[in-house]
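Problem 12. The chain below contains 447 residues. Write out its predicted structure in C-alpha cell notation.
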Amino acid sequence: MKGGGTSLLRGAAQPPVGLLWRCWGAAGCTMVEVTVTPQSSLADRPVQVLVRGLSPSQLVTLRASLTDEHGECFQARAFFHADGAGEVDPGRHAALGGSYSGLWPMGLFWFLQPDTLFRRLIKRDVAGSPFIVRLEVFDGLHLVPVPQDQALASCEAERWYVGPGTQRVPIREGRVRGALFLPPGPGPFPGVIDLFGGAGGLIEFRAGLLASRGFAVLALAFFAYDDLPRTLAQLDLEYFEEAAELLLRHPKVRGPGLGVVGVSKGAEVALAMATFLPQVVATVWINGTAFLHGNPLVYKDLRIPPIPYYAERIIFAEMGALDNSAIFSDPRDPAHSASAIPVERVRGKVLFVVGEADRSMNSKLFAQLAMARMPPESCRLLSYPGAGHLIEPPGSPLCSVSSLRGAPRPVVWGGEAQPHAKAQEHSWQEIVQFLEVHLGPAATMKL
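Solution.
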C-alpha cells in the first residue's frame, strides 16, 4: 500500500483483524471518509465499501477506477443518497443509477468499463502485483470526470490474483509451455490444467485464483506462446497428454486423476482430454463446442476432421465489431457426425457452464448435444440467461466486445452486465465445489 501502509497479502507485519484502512480527503473535508475492508484481498473475494461523515440524504457519486498494465483506465460510478446516519454502504443501500442500479455490494468492482472501446480487463502479471482500485466519493451528481473535480475522500484497494505464499513456476519441459501455481505448504494438492481459447498465448489469472483456493494449477499455453506454433493448425492431443503427465509427476500434486478447466476453444480441448485421457476425471467446460471446428484433432492413430468455419457468414455488429456466431454450421447436420468428440467415452465427470447470451457460438446447443450422448450421472449443466461468452471468476467485469489477436476487427462476445455478474459469482462457487468433490479437498486458505 502506498504511503507506508502494510498490505494484508504482502508484508511481514499484519494489522489486527477488522482494521479499517482510512484515507482522508482534502483539507476542509476531513469529516468524510471512505474505507474498503479488507484493503487487500483476492480479486474473487468480496469487500465492503463504506462512506461516513455525509449529511443525511446527501446525494453523492462513488467512483472506482483502475489502470491496467497497458495504461488503460477502467471506471465505474454509482449515485447514492446517504442514509439518516450520513453513511453510504453499497451492500445495504441501492444505487440510484450510474454504471448500475440496485443493490450490488460489489457493483463498483464488477461493473468497471474501459475508457477506450474494445478493451478487456485482464491481469497479466498475476504474481508480481495487484490491481489497484481507487475509490472516491464526490458531492452531488458527477456524470463524467472533470479535471477540477475535488473528491470528498478517497482510498485504494488492492485486488490480488494469488494468495500469500502461492508460488508461480514457469514451465518449459519437453514440449510443454506454461506456468504452474502451487499453494503454500507441502501438499499434495489436487491438480488442475487451465486452458483459454482462440487468442492463444498464456493467460494466468484464473489459475492464480484457483491456486489460492488450494489447487495446484498448470496454466497451459498451446499456441502463440514462446516457441509453440504461432497459429493453431491442429490439436495434437499428445501435447495435452504430456502436460497431464508432467503435472501428475510433480511431488506436490495428488493423483491419480486431475481436473481440466477450459473456455471457448479451450473448452473444446478440455472435452477431448476428458474423452481420451484417463488421467482427466473432472472437466469444466465453459462456452465451447462438442465438435472439432477449424482444426483437426490428432492423437496417435486417431484423426477427427473439423467442421470448417464459414467466414462469409460473419456479421458486422454494433460499432463495426464482428459477430461470429453464424460461422458455425449446424452441428446436427448428419454430414458433420464424424467431427463430433465421442463424449460417450468420457469416464469422469463434466460440468457444462453456458451463457445463454453467448454471441460467439451457440454454446447451449453444443452442451445439450454432448450431454445427450453421455450417461446422466456423468454430467451437469449450469445455464445462465443473460450471460455472455467470457464467463470468468467474479471480479472480472463483463467484456461484451473486445479486440482479439488475429482478428481484423473487435469481436462480439455478448452478455448483459447484471445477469452476467450473477452468473460469474454463482458459477465460480460451483466450479470450485465441483473440483473439490471429484478431485478431493483442496488446501484451505483464509483470506
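Discussion. The longest strand covers residues 253-263. Students who got a different answer should revisit the alignment rule from Section 12.3.
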